Amino acid sequence: MKKLMKHSKKLMFLIDIIVISIAATIANLLLCQENKMFLNENIRTIINSIVSAIIVYEFYLNIFKTYRNITRFEEGKDYLNYIGICVMAGSTLAIIKIISNIDINSVRRQILGAFITMIGIVGVRIVIRFYLNSRIQEQAKSDGRKYRVLIIGAGYAGKEIIRNIKQTMNEKYEVVGIIDDSKARLHRIINGAEVLGNKDQIVEICKEKEVDEIFFAISKINKKKKKEILNICQETGKKIRILPTTEDIIKNKNMFQNLRDVDIEDILGRDPVVLDNNKIGNLIENKTILVTGAGGSIGSELCRQIIKYNPSKLVMLDIYENSLYNIELELKEKYSHTDIQAIIGSVRDIKRLESVFEKYNPYLVFHAAAHKHVPLMEASPLEAIKNNVFGTYNVANCADKYKCKKMILISTDKAVNPTNIMGATKRLCEMIIQVKNKNSETEYAAVRFGNVLGSNGSVVPLFKKQIAEGGPVTVTHKDIIRYFMTIPEAAQLVLQAMSYAKGGEIFILDMGEPVKIYDLAVTLIKLSGLEPEVDIPIVFTGLRPGEKLFEELLMSEEGLKKTENKKIYIGELTDLDEKDILNKLAKLKKLVENEKTPIEEIKETVHEVVPTYVLKKENKSKNEKELLNV
């Protein structure tokens, strides 16, 4: 059966040819005089009629893309489409007969042939549909009991999901009812399912109806309302599946297949980013753009966002070939008209960088290449210095030498009062681009933000993996807090900040409300339909080396200035001396030249270079102490 379904288009094409051929033959024989049926002349007419009918009918069937339909999901409007095609094809053949001398069936026979073809094409598809659906239902029945499902939303999407379940998944799912806030819909029956109540009754109804799963079937809803309803659903402890955006639904005809598991992004409920596309587009369109670290989470998303603004060339630089290859493949498939260059190279290698800058002469540079994993950099501090500090210094020098318009550094909230090597090196990167801005035609700026959901090294993919494996979920500390935003949101705001940059700024993104990592773990377990500490234990492992209980986005000497975008702020510029920065870099240069330098000596030197770097664990920042007291 699977092999047949794999070649379903070819199979339907062949069936249609057989149906058309039989219809043309029957039409001829029914309206033919008995003594002329098997004369050579009539046989020749039948053959000509079959050939011409196949050509005309298949022309219309292909023009209307009927072979893209999934037969078991076809319905009334699809069958009407087939009827219309048969009418058009039959009319075309009748006209051909009237205006030409071609030896094919008469007009009467063409009309009869169209009628028979119509019955055959529609009839065959109805039979196949019922057969496939019955097979799927039998298979589902053999797999076990029915899952009791509660549908959230009595609109079009909810109606379609119920219809899909009844047609193809009736033996696996039972719809116990619908939730909708419209009083007018209360107790109405939609596709056989009753509207039982509103969102405030979800928990009660789930208990009363012994619900196994909840399907959230509202595609058009604002983030705040969606978050509110999903939080109520989460209290039930049932598995929740959700419809994506309307745009995603349009791409997939079967509404049921669009259902996905609820992501943490749905629960956070962050408002969509509003961008000044004209400002961004004016700087990117028909320009050459370079992204370093293009294979990483932020770098690859920057590439996805940048290419929408039609650059003349997108140059993607990364040392890791697999991730670079993946983003190259993805973008070339979607944007074949754009010149995309994937370049293997390290920001540590100044000669390689200079060859790239010389060859492509980028107008804008987005510097996302960096080592970002805190515990790994604690164990290998020299690598953080080489890659983050001197990598940034190399890119900044090339941007100046080759007269780029702007260079944007991707920074982190860990650069504020850092307690780890990674954060300290990123703070020094910010200092480098600020002093570089003083004596260069290139405009340098940094964008500072917190954690991004789903990025490489993020806790969310780790928690999901641990839940899938049956636990335990590991959290470093019950009180640890982080700021989160989605990867696309961060990349979009970086582009907007770039359009505001005049040189020397540190842009700070509004990360919204802080999130307790423990609460995040609990939420993800519940979203999986499991109970924390019952089905999945949560284990506290202790803070890792260099890890803070919470992150800050602003240093004490930095004030905040608003920008045109309510999610982007500018930290007040601090006065930095170029000679001082160069001396700091010289100290670090000596360190990296000796691989045997003890880690404690490296950290002490970094502390001298970045005075805000907190070396001892007990030296908590004032803000952190205040937070713990609360």
SSE layout and pairing:
Layout: H1 2-6, H2 8-30, H3 40-63, H4 76-99, H5 107-142, E1 147-152, H6 156-168, E2 173-179, E3 189-190, E4 193-197, H7 202-208, E5 213-216, H8 223-235, E6 239-242, H9 246-251, E7 260-261, H10 264-268, H11 277-284, E8 288-292, H12 297-306, E9 313-318, H13 321-334, E10 339-344, H14 350-360, E11 364-367, H15 374-379, H16 381-401, E12 406-412, H17 421-436, E13 443-449, E14 451-453, H18 459-468, E15 473-475, E16 481-482, E17 484-486, H19 487-500, E18 506-509, E19 515-516, H20 517-527, E20 538-540, E21 560-562, E22 568-571, H21 578-592, H22 599-609, H23 622-629
Helix pairs in contact: 2-3, 2-5, 3-4, 4-5, 11-19, 12-19, 14-16, 16-17, 16-21, 17-22, 18-20, 21-22
Characterization of this structure:
The chain is an alpha/beta fold. 49% of the residues lie in helices and 15% in strands. The strands form five sheets. The chain has a nine-stranded mixed sheet with strand order 10-9-8-11-12-13-18-22-21, with helices on both faces. Strands 3-4-2-1-5-6-7 form a seven-stranded mixed sheet, with helices on both faces. Helix 2 runs antiparallel to helix 5 (107-142). The chain is globular and about 110 Å long. Mean pLDDT is 85; it is low at 246-253 and 617-630.
Short description:
This protein has 630 residues and is α/β, with parallel strands linked by helices.
